[in-house]
Amino acid sequence: MSGKPWIGALAAASLLAAAEPVAPLGTYRPAERRHWAFVPRSEIPPPRFTDARDRAWAASPIDAFILHRLQKEGLRPSPPADRATLVRRVYFDLWGLPPTPAEVDAFVRDRAPDAYARLVDRLLASPRYGERWGQHWLDVVRYAETDGFEYDTHRQDAWRYRDYVIRAFNDDKPYDRFIQEQLAGDELSPQDDEALVAAGFNRLGPLRQNAGNQEVASSRNEVLTEMTNAVGAALLGVTLGCARCHDHKFDPIRQSDYYRIQAYFAAVHDRDIDKASPEERKAWQVQAEPVEAEIKRLREAMNKAPREERGQWLMKIEAMQDKMPPPLPAIYTVANDPAKKSAIHLLARGDYQHKGDRVGMRPLGVLLPDGAPELPEDTPAPRLELAKWITHPDHPLTARVMVNRIWHYHFGRGLVSTPNDFGRMGARPTHPELLDYLANEFVRSGFRVKHMHRLILNTRAYRQASSTRDAAAEEKDPENKWLWKFSRRRLEAEEIRDAMLAISGSLNLKAGGPSVMVPIEKELVAALYKPAQWQVHKDPREHDRRSIYLIAKRNLRLPFMEVFDAPDFQVSCPRRESSTHAPQALELLNGALANQQAARLAARLEREAGTRADRQAELAFRLVTGRPPAPRELALARNYLATGSRREFALAMFNLNAFLYVN
After folding, report:
1. CA quadruple 624, 629, 634, 638: dihedral sign
2. How far apart are CA 314 and CA 411, in angstroms?
3. How far is CA 567 from CA 230, 255, 586, in A?
């Protein structure tokens, strides 16, 4: 079974319907087909144990697989985390926000056997969950609201895709439908605004404007490249992009595979669907007409001017373009245009000027029989065919890739530690049987992500302490890949900022809508190609929105987010790095955000705890760290508050490891 190529029923039917078989542009050796990620998933029953203590710990199948591997490595699991630690862990995990002191107390006091399971269910049912887990998906698909490159033009309505992703996680939209809508929402449900917004996935990559002409061959090639690479990295977990210029050096992905996947996108072009009311459209036209007329006059004058003077005229035109009213509301999506369909050729070294054989649509060859035909060129909904192949229940990659991502975000490390690379140069799974168990369960559940959360979060493995000191285990498994304890992690950039806002009492939980620009250093704005692009929101309360609602601008990342390892939006980010360097401390001590929130926290402490230093210290530790202060901490805080600044005390609290890390 493991040596046979996989081919889904849908793909089989489509390929057999092809009019003419195409000679294969490469065959596959048996060893290539046997790579673990390309073979069908296994159905291995969870291990069983004779020892009563082991049976009690391994009550769930997930725990059984983990305990079996620990025993094989000569390791033992750690004791459970205390309840205060656990509640803070799961709040940040599912919400990206800290629990309030009252929420910690409620869980610590609730000794019912199902208290923790009910807590998980409550967190999953909250809109805060989608805001946290939507950010993970936006990382993977390199979501941004600007084009990048020198112009970095704003995509006024791209935020609708962000809100779609958040809703999808909150609604527990089945993952197969989630993928189909993003790849082919316009083909799947052309009258459904939700599906059309989802299809904006195909426009998320950076875009070189080339003076506004996106149909020149080089620009079109870049657009198709972005679409193709996203399929490989985000959806299939393979380095498909490495086969753009030549056959993959390590994986059984031929250059013909790359361009056959690209062929599914050959007819795709940008589409903005006007959603303005007649009144909005009329008012816009009144403002736009005189500006457009002046731009036309300036262009005519520039065309008549000597060549050496045209730069000056161009500057006048750009200044006038800045006076245009904001674009009308629209859906940022795509559509097929058969009249502008691109012919897809193999490109020598990826160069659009050096075309080789023309190819058509076909899935990855390593998952098909040698010589499998391409789809007919007139296939009516090509991207939907690709989406259905990717989301077929038997596909060997799709479910494995997604459950590995879920595991990664819960434990800080995937069962495959290279979430975007399941190929030969990626890591092998530490627990292959567990990975397949999770993937099978994911498919059986109807591709429900929340079901997977419940399975994972209710395990004993997830609820282990992180503070265990076991010299032998640390020497044998310093990376904790066998999960003998829970791995402490530093909060991500968005979590640090959002937690500061929540702790200071400033967090604005308004959901959705256009993204917010917050005040930043003038020098950063001045460095933009067009400084007028950065328009700070006039309502200060909007500046306190959750980080996922801040503008994702490719050419200007917020310094606070950048210093704490937020991705750069250019390429898929499968995992956040967690660096430690001096600018982080400088940002937390001297940065505008930290000092602003410290002042607000100081005011909150006095407002809610009164003037007594011990009460302020107690409340500060419970808000910031999720626990009361230890005796020495209380004594130090009380002594400082007796003579020092409450704002500086609050600032020091934001610099504690107990705030910045989840145990």
Report:
1. positive
2. 53
3. 16, 29, 20
Q: What is the residue extent of each domain of the chain?
A: 493-662
Q: Alpha helices, DSSP H only, in 100-250?
A: 101-109, 115-124, 127-140, 159-170, 175-188, 193-198, 217-230
Q: Quickly list DSSP for 351-370.
A: -TTSEEEE------GGGS-T
Give the Cα-Cα-Cα angle 331, 335, 341 (nearest 5 degrees): 150
Average pLDDT over residues 434-456: 98
Q: What is the pLDDT of residues 292-329, one digit of tens each?
A: 999 999 999 999 999 888 888 888 888 898 889 988 99
Cα(463)–Cα(443) distance, integer angstroms:
25
Instruction: Write down the pLDDT at residue 1.
Output: 41
Report in angstroms the alpha-carbon separations of 646 from 132, 206, 497, 638. Answer: 31, 45, 20, 11
Torsion of the alpha carbons at 105, 106, 109 and 115, rounded to the nearest 10:
-140
3-state secondary structure of 662: strand
pTM for the whole structure: 0.94
Q: What is d(CA 639, CA 654) in angstroms, rounded to the nearest whole number?
A: 18
pLDDT computed for residue 186 by the predictor: 98
Indicate whether 238 pLDDT > 60: yes
Q: Over 60: is that where the pLDDT of 251 sits?
A: yes
Q: Where are the alpha helices (DSSP H) in 528-630?
A: 559-563, 582-590, 592-609, 613-625
15, amino acid identity: L
Is residue 202 within 8 A of residue 265, CB to CB? The reply is yes
CB 561 within 8 A of CB 493: yes
The DSSP code sequence of 23-36 is: --S----HHHHTSG
DSSP H or E stretch at residue 661: strand 661-662
β-bridge pairing 489-490 and 355-358: unpaired
pLDDT given for residue 5 in this prediction: 77
- Give one DSSP letter per residue of 300-320, joined into a string: HHHHHS-GGGHHHHHHHHHHH
Note the pLDDT tens digit of each residue in 156-196. Answer: 999 999 999 999 999 999 999 999 999 999 999 999 999 99
What residues pair up with 274 in beta bridges, in sequence order? 330
Residue 23 above 50 pLDDT?
no
**Site of tokens 């995937």:** 414
Q: Report the alpha-carbon distance of residue 533 to residue 555 in Å, rounded.
A: 11
Rounded to whole angstroms, the Cα distance separating 79 from 467 reads 10
- Judged on CB neighbours under 10 Å (0-12, 13-18, 19+), 580 is exposed
* Residue 593, φ and ψ in degrees, nearest 5: -65, -50
DSSP state of 233: I
Place of tokens 């429900």: 448
Per-residue pLDDT tens for 105-160? 999 999 999 999 999 999 999 999 999 999 999 999 999 999 999 889 999 999 99
Question: Encoding tokens for residue 101?
Answer: 């002191």
Mean predicted confidence (pLDDT) in 268-282: 94
